[in-house]
Amino acid sequence: TVVQTTSPSGGARTRVLQSDFAILELVEVPEAKALSEIAPQMDRRFLVHGVFKIGIFVTDLESTVQRLRESGVTFRGAIINDTNLNVRTILAIDPEGNTVQLFERVR
């Protein structure tokens, strides 16, 4: 299922892609500028616009984390169990400093 919307002001465009196993929301703001352009001294981007992240479900969180660590990926914290959502999760940091949250469903 794909749902497409535009903000009332016409600035942001949103697309929500949904399937039986995932929801992906894409938000585009055409007039946005790169942080490196407007504030090159800012190296901790989340301090400017809060935490922005993408979440991905994987089938085996332990082995995924191990492979990513061996490839040089850094993580914020350790794997935690979220009993409210019935998932295990951890936050990875990509080379640009963005947060990628990995999830594994707990059955």
Structural notes for this entry:
With 107 residues, the protein is α+β, with helices and mostly antiparallel strands. Helices cover 17% and strands 42% of the residues. The chain has 3 helices and 7 strands, in the order E-E-E-H-H-E-H-E-E-E. The strands form 2 sheets. A 4-stranded mixed β-sheet has the order 4-7-6-5, with helices on one face. Strands 1-2-3 form a 3-stranded antiparallel β-sheet, with no helix packed on it. The longest helix has 10 residues. The chain is flat, with a radius of gyration of 16 Å.
Which class of secondary structure composition applies to the elements? alpha+beta
Largest sheet: 4 strands, mixed
Order of helices and strands: EEEHHEHEEE
* Mean pLDDT across residues: 80
Q: Please report the total strand number as a whole number.
A: 7
Poorly predicted residue ranges: none
Summarize the structure.
This protein has 107 residues and is α+β, with helices and mostly antiparallel strands. Helix content is 17%, strand content 42%.
